[in-house]
Amino acid sequence: MTMFNLIELKNLKPGADTGPKKNNAHIHLPPNFSAFNYVEDALEDAKNEGIRLLGASNYYDYSVYRPFVQGALQRGIYPVLGMEIVSWIDELATTGVKINDPGNPGKAYICGKGIVGIANPRPEAKETLNQIRERDSKRSAKMVAKMEEALSLVGLKTGLTELVVTESIARRHNVSETTVVLQERHIAMAFQQAIFAKYSEREREQKLSEAFGKAPKDATNEVGIQGELRSYLMKAGKAAYIEEEFISIEDALQLIRDLDGLPCYPTLADGVVPICGFEETPEALITNLKKLGIRTAEFIPGRNEPAVLKEYVTKMRQSGIVVGAGTEHNTLDRIAIEPKCVKDQPIPDECQDVFWEAACLFAAHQHRILNGQPGFEAQEAYNEEAIKLFASEGAALIGGMENNVK
Known about the structure:
Elements: H1 7-10, E1 22-27, H2 39-49, E2 51-58, H3 65-74, E3 78-88, H4 90-95, E4 107-113, H5 123-152, H6 162-173, H7 184-198, H8 201-212, H9 222-234, E5 247-248, H10 249-258, E6 262-267, H11 282-292, E7 296-299, H12 306-318, E8 322-325, H13 349-370, H14 384-399, H15 401-404
Helix pairs in contact: 5-10, 7-9, 11-12, 13-14
C-alpha cells in the first residue's frame, strides 16, 4: 500500500473563524467511478464554486489522496481524507431489514472521516484492506467473465477481460493499474463502450433485447445502456451476478478507527421509497446509530426533499449526532460541488448550519490526530461542549486556509 507524507496538512496554522463556508464532505475521486477524469477536475470545480472544505470518500485504494491533498492545499481548500466501506449486519439480513441499501437487507454502507492513518496504516488495518481488495478483485474478474459470456450468447462478443477493463480505467485517469478498484459501474461502462464501438445501433438494439429480455429504452443512450446492463445482467438473480462478500459492520467500524477516522453513517432517508426500515423514522435511526456507537452521520441531499431533510437533520442533531453533507459524484453527471436538495432545491438554512458544524468538526478531528492529540471519539459520548470545541477549532483551520496557500 502506498505511503505518503501529510506533513503539510499537519502543519497548517489556524486563522480567524470568518463564518460558515461552502463545503462538501463526500465525493469520489478517480480511479473510483466518478464524474471527474482527474483529481484536478474536482479541485478546480471546487475552487471555482468557492468550496473551502472538500472530503474524499474513496473505496479501497488511497494513492490518489497524495495529489488530492497537495492540490487542495494549493487552492486554499481544506482536504478531509475519508473512506467508504460496504459491510454487513447479519441479524438484520436474517430479519429482512434494509439499512442504507434499498435492494439488500443487511447490507450497510459506512464511511470514515479523517482517516489520516491511511498514510502509513497499522498492520491490522492493512491486512483488513488487503482482504477487502482481494475479495473485490476476485468478484470483479468473475463478473467481467460472466458478462462476456452472457453477451456472447446473443452475439455481442467484446473480448473484454478484467485486465483489459482495468488497463482502460488506468489510461483514462492516468494512474497506475494497481490503484484501480473495479466497481460495477466501471464494468458496465466498459461493456457499453465496447458494444457501441463494435456493433451498429440496429445490431445492438436487437441483441441487447435478447440479453435483457426486453428492448432497451434507447440504444443510442450511453449512460442509459450502462444502467440497463447493470439492472438486467449484473444484479442479484441475473446472468452476470456474482455474490458479494462483506466484512461485518463491527470490523468496518474497527478498520475506520484503526485508520484514526470517525465512523460516519451515510443516510438515505427519502432517497428511496419506501424509506429503509433501519431509517424508517428519525427516532428509529437515532436509536440504531447509538446502539452501534456511531456519533456522526451524513446525507447526500441531492436525494432528499427539503422538508424530510430538515426533519431528519434537526432531530439527529438534537440527539447529539453530528451531521454532514456531500454529493458523492459517483456517476458521470457533472453536478455542482455544493450540495443541493433533490431537483436543485436549496438546502434549508437550519441544515446548512448543521452541515457546516460537521465539516468543521471533521477538520478539527483530522488535525488533532495528525498532531498527536486526542480525536473526537476520545471525548465523552454525545457531549455538546466537545462538539462546539471541535467545531470552533475546525472553523479556525478552514478560515486560515488562504494564509497557508503557498
